[in-house]
Write a structure and sequence with these properties.
heterodimer, A: Rossmann fold, 37% helix, globular
């Protein structure tokens, strides 16, 4: 199977309002694709449909060759998601949260999986701590551990380093790079951090008003639009009235 | 259906209960207060009313039964609301847990929560008022089971509303039981109600359960018709509730409530 994720002519409308209009993209195995766009452009709606939380109005999503509308549970078993806007139960310890989610994903050898993630994400000293009492950086690493608890084939990341200090942000980015290389997973990264996208993503989708207005490799987009970096390309595209 | 996922969701709530003494205290506190309060009222009625003559425990028994129903229903809703309050809702619904597994896990967890509150209350009634719920005999099991099913069904109805409309439906979750209480005929016979209210009451299983509890305690006889009618109505409401829950889930996926529910 060449593509882990295939999005075909995907649309979502709420009444007369179109949140996403006929978008297409694919993500290969061992590839990170960036999803960029201003707030309200349809990124969260797109990710919501990819996660099965939202029912598309039109179009199709295939993950690992299966249609999400017909195989939602099977697909959810092999994907996961991290976002600073959702949290793990605050009163539970880190270990309890990982056990709960390990059970929800029916993870085999859960103890060794937790030990592996704990070691990779430097969580050893946090396991017995209450999740709600952790710092943002610590919570972020715990959420990452939860997102990887089921050894996903596809990972959706929504601003995974938002509100993190540069050191922790760099740790997370390095971890994701290494983890993707090691496990050959497919990743869709929605972010407003252009340096992060330039560093991690092999290709970028630019969204505005529910449609993909441009796509390509970060360096190609920078050259195509005659700008110095991806942030300038982002600003040019989002501020222009007639794209491309 | 995977036992692991059902067990996983149960653990999520069990860990929460065991980690927080105030939560345990809260589970025990209200039923105990309720039972104590009604125990005194019960004593008063027993000495001033001919209706309850020689049946001191009737009101108190009905209070305990009603409290069990209340705890079960609110317990189910609480489990759902906990996910919303902790902003964990999305994490739960992007895990491969099926709707049927969510319902079974919450049904079981709600029972554990209700029993944590109920058992101390039952134990209190004997030394304080010399009354034992076991006077209802083996039929007590059927009455409790019937109340448990109806409590869960109400919980499923309210959770369907929470799924569909989000946290704004929360207040309904708290008021359901108070709205139904007058029609349940918990402390008085159905004849007390106006005729129109009686028609509503007869469409609920509660009236058959509480009429039968009083019948057993006061007349020392059992009318199995009441128990059967209660189970029959419970079955209908449970099927409607579960169907509504599935419908609300699909509706929430269409409307986007699952994404915005924590906000």
């Amino acid at each position: 199977m060449e593509y882990s994720v295939e999005v075909i002519n995907l649309s979502k409308s709420y009444g007369k309002k179109d949140a996403v209009r006929g978008i297409d993209f694919k993500i290969k195995e061992n590839e990170i694709i960036g999803l960029l766009g201003p707030n309200g452009c349809g990124k969260t709606t797109t990710i919501g449909m990819l996660l099965g939380l939202l029912k598309p109005s039109k179009g199709q999503i295939n993950i690992n060759g299966m249609k999400i509308e017909k195989n939602r549970i099977e697909i959810l078993q092999k994907i996961n998601f991290i976002s600073p806007y959702i949290e793990l139960p605050k009163k539970l310890t880190v270990q309890q949260n990982l056990v709960v989610y390990g059970k929800l994903y029916s993870v085999k050898n859960l103890k060794s999986r937790i030990e592996y993630l704990t070691s990779k994400l430097r969580l050893e000293e946090l396991l017995k701590k209450i999740t709600g009492e952790l710092s943002s950086g610590q919570k972020n690493r715990v959420s990452l551990a939860k997102a990887l608890i089921n050894d996903p084939d596809v990972l959706f990341l929504d601003e995974p380093t938002a509100s993190l200090d540069p050191e922790i942000g760099d740790f997370v980015r390095t971890f994701l790079e290494n983890y993707k290389r090691e496990k050959k997973i497919s990743v869709l990264l929605a972010s407003h951090n252009m340096n992060e996208v330039t560093r991690l993503c092999s290709s970028v989708l630019m969204m505005k008003d529910g449609v993909i207005i441009d796509k390509g490799k970060p360096k190609e987009l920078i050259a195509k639009h005659g700008r110095q970096n991806l942030e300038e390309v982002f600003l040019k595209l989002t501020r222009s009235k007639n794209e491309i | 259906m995977k036992f692991n996922r059902i067990y996983g969701l149960f653990l999520r709530h069990f860990f929460l209960i065991t980690r927080s003494f105030p939560r345990v205290l809260d589970l025990i506190y209200w039923p105990s207060i309720q039972i104590t309060l009604w125990g005194f009222i019960s004593n008063f009625f027993a000495s001033h009313s001919t209706y309850y003559n020689n049946a001191v425990g009737v009101i108190l028994t009905c209070a305990i039964l009603y409290d069990f129903l209340f705890r079960t229903s609110i317990g189910f809703n609480m489990l759902f609301l906990e996910e919303i309050w902790s902003r964990n809702f999305t994490n739960l619904f992007i895990s491969p847990i099926k709707i049927s597994e969510i319902i079974i896990s919450l049904v079981f967890t709600a029972l554990v929560r209700a029993l944590i509150g109920l058992i101390p209350a039952i134990l209190l009634t004997s030394p304080l008022f010399g009354i034992s719920l076991l006077d209802l005999g083996v039929h007590l099991f059927f009455l409790f089971l019937s109340l448990y099913i109806f409590g869960i069904t109400l919980g499923i109805f309210v959770s369907s509303g929470l799924l569909r409309f989000g946290p704004s439906f929360e207040n309904i979750a708290w008021s359901t039981m108070f709205l139904l209480a007058p029609f349940g005929c918990i402390y008085y016979p159905i004849e007390i109600l106006p005729e129109f209210f009686q028609k509503i009451a007869y469409s609920l299983p509660l009236v058959y359960i509480f009429e039968e509890a009083r019948n057993i305690l006061i007349n020392q006889s059992v009318d199995y018709q009441n128990i059967i009618k209660a189970f029959y109505l419970n079955g209908i409401y449970l099927v409607i509730g579960i169907s509504l829950f599935y419908y609300s889930f699909e509706k929430a996926r269409k409307k986007g409530t699952l994404i915005n529910i924590g906000e």
